[in-house]
Design brief:
The structure is a homodimer. The first copy, chain A, has helices at residues 9-33, 36-43, 47-53, 57-77, 85-102, 104-115, 122-145, 154-170, 172-179, 185-201. By secondary structure, chain A is mainly α. Chain A has two domains: 1-55, Homeodomain-like (Arc Repressor Mutant, subunit A, Orthogonal Bundle), CATH 1.10.10.60; 64-201, Tetracycline Repressor, domain 2 (Orthogonal Bundle). Chains A and B meet through helix 1, helix 6, helix 7, helix 8 and helix 9 of A and helix 1, helix 6, helix 7, helix 8 and helix 9 of B. The first copy, chain A, binds a DNA duplex through residues 2-3, 8, 10-11, 14, 35-37, 45-49, 51-52, 56-57.
Amino acid sequence: MPDDAGPTRIQARNRARILEAGLDVFSTDGFRGATLDAIAGASGLSKPNLLYYFSSKEAIYLALLDSLLQTWLDPLRALDPHGDPVEEILAYVRRKLTLARDFPRESRLFAGEILRGAPQIEHALAGDLRDLVDSHAIILSEWMRAGRIARSDPHHLIFSIWALTQHYADFDVQVRAVLGDERDAWAEAATEVEQHFRRVLRPD
Amino acid sequence: MPDDAGPTRIQARNRARILEAGLDVFSTDGFRGATLDAIAGASGLSKPNLLYYFSSKEAIYLALLDSLLQTWLDPLRALDPHGDPVEEILAYVRRKLTLARDFPRESRLFAGEILRGAPQIEHALAGDLRDLVDSHAIILSEWMRAGRIARSDPHHLIFSIWALTQHYADFDVQVRAVLGDERDAWAEAATEVEQHFRRVLRPD
DNA sequence: CAAAGATTTGACCGTCTGGTCAAAGCGACG
DNA sequence: CGTCGCTTTGACCAGACGGTCAAATCTTTG
């Protein structure tokens, strides 16, 4: 196993390769469906070589989930409590949708993990995630109290944003099957989702 | 293999047992993660006995998906073109949410299949599903043209309903982690989702 | 360039998994 | 009660899978 003290150039490159290949394989086949041979093949490394850089299949998966969760939470962190409420929330929605469009594999990997009961990251959900959501729910509450956005439960408002934006990444196949190949799902999603939340947020 | 001509009582009972156990196992572990041994254990039958009733692991999975898809589409079929637009759509939303609450395993099985690219039911998506959605999109379009609900893209309106209702079933773990154990996620979801779509649908 | 360390690999192992098969149990019916 | 067809199962198999290991190769550095 490589020493943490001095990660060489080779180590950095190969670890990155493995994670990239792992993302590909895990996001399409799930944790159990993925095989070390598949990841080895996709990364261009031999199987024992994989296990030289990561102690097990699970270690690769965990490394992916870990870096993923941060990327996933960042857009919410960027929400500015002092900005214009509707525009701040819409900007968050846009960031989330862009993320879903540009990183569908990450989105699906995360979705698969949650779907199966989040055995590996339940603690992160009940910890970091919950804290972050709670603190932003307070901001939303204040905006609602001030009459600047429509009143609703702030937690469920956040859920609705997650649900809608992730839907286009996670259920991509279904979306495309229904819309047909000639329509540009992502372009439409961008305008429709924005309009959707403008309606939801507009104070009565 | 049992003859299709005369399904005996034993056959009906055991097939039902297998499907029930299969639903349990497939919905938590996914197709690849599920094992025949696990299904055998959960159903109380021996592994070779499973394969006496279904020709393969895939056959069990397909039988589940097949019956599932119908259940999943029924609520949309029940939408009445001659009823009150807002109430009809809200009734659909409620049916969907109830379905998600009462049949989370089915919901997750379906979600997992789509997530992995729907290898087994892509044809059904591009066929039955698409046709059904298209025909109802027309109804929605007419309601919009008549000014009875807010204007938007009808397909994306349907997506938003699916996204929100399924979110509570498929991402149950995340929802509960964020809300905490003391809150009743489903009860809140019912009122919040209804309010959400009243806003989305209300004509300007 | 030689030694030390980092990296890579072919061969291998124990276990799990989907599936087969022949034989045994069992229930209905003449 | 015997027989015939439906049902059930223990034993087994071939391939896949996660992981190990000792040996080989390549890099770095004194």
